[in-house]
Specification:
The structure is a single chain. The protein is α/β, with parallel strands linked by helices and 402 residues long. It has two domains: 9-158 and 294-369, Rossmann fold, CATH 3.40.50.2300; 161-287, 3-Layer(aba) Sandwich (Rossmann fold), CATH 3.40.50. It is built from 15 helices and 15 strands. The protein has helices at residues 2-21, 23-29, 32-35, 55-71, 95-105, 117-130, 161-164, 167-173, 187-202, 221-230, 241-253, 273-276, 296-309, 315-333, 341-349, and strands at residues 42-48, 75-76, 79-87, 110-113, 133-136, 153-155, 178-184, 206-213, 234-238, 262-265, 284-287, 352-353, 360-362, 368-378, 381-392. The strands form two sheets. Strands 7, 8, 9, 10, 11, 12, 13, 14 and 15 form a nine-stranded mixed β-sheet that branches. It has a six-stranded mixed β-sheet with strand order 2-3-1-4-5-6, with helices on both faces. The protein starts with a helix and ends in a 10-residue tail after the last strand. It binds P-hydroxybenzoic acid.
Amino acid sequence: MAVGNMRTPRRDFLKAAAAGAGLAAAASVLPTRLATAQPAKLRVGLMLPYTGTYAQLGVAITNGLKLVIQERGGRLGGREIEFYTVDDESNPAKAPENANKLVQRDKVDVLIGTVHSGVAMGMAKVARETGVLTIIPNAGADALTGALCAPNVFRTSFSNWQPTYPIGKVMVERGHRTAAYITWKYAAGEESLAAFREGFTKAGGKVLKELFVPFPNVEFQALLTEIASIRPDAVACFFAGGGAAKFLTDYAAAGLRDKIPLYGSGFLTDGVLEAVSGVAQGIETTLHYGDGLETPRNQQFRLAYAKAFKQQPDVYAVQGYDTGLLLAAGLEAVKGDVGSMQGVIKAMESARIDSPRGPFTMSRAHNPVMDIYLRKVVGKENRVTGIAHKALADPGRGCKLA
Ligand code: PHB
């Protein structure tokens, strides 16, 4: 369609120009872009947080995605890319409106978003209703690749269950029998807590107390006082971005760091060590990535990212990069023709993504099946010390995809 539309004005333009000024002159004014009947640019919608506690996560995801495109000479599946962007502010109330801006107003071919689980739920509703090809580069809400899974919706990050489930067993192995869990009161915190409770209890531990702060508040003092009085063997948590940096700082300032060891999913220490590594030394976490993964693939990625953006990549940058790799796999299979949705989906479902985190494949529900690493903060690095769970697949409960 787009190519056909471009041909008619081009012919008219040629005729008029030839009549008025002669063919040689026409050739000199004809834009070269039109001269070779290029396919229309691929319209990519980015719905991500660029302000608030998750702002850095949105930027890292965007950078990772752009690196893939840059490595492919500015194209995916032979098509140049045009970006349309909204700052979703990690605000669930605005999610449907923001998603519709991209899908209905900007008519994007692909929707990429977002970070916050609650926002992603609103976005995914629009994705399901419109059928637009959608890739989630972070938000972990379990239902997105569970009961609410859809043929056109893929996730390159994790379900909230995946990075947290394995930490409980590690804590019991370290001799901790009791724990308190602290997090934000919204889907990602609640689902991480459920995953923690499942893993910790199964390994023989007991959760003494669950503590919540509203998202995105970072007033932790009262709850830290409560933790000190409960005296669990250890504390586990889900925090990320600016909130994680603040929690690490406050935990140390409250004098708890040397008394009650702190654990969590690796979001706690990812992307924050440049700022707060001093208060994070020795903290062990589980995650599907670690800065210090000593594979040629990861080292090549880290060098390229640092060169392009003058900063170190983190797990969010990797997820953005892998979103680009997955999209490239889908588009290359249909030579850039996103109208061939079945072909795109089939290629994405069967892709083996050569990620900096290690290769991964898609589950039946369109969620990564991947290794979860055990990491430890050493200096400014999340050093990988082992594999906490090999090839962990989310159960995808309630997903009806074939
Ligand atoms: C989420 O809301 O799903 C979420 C946000 C930030 C993270 C992980 C999960 O680092």
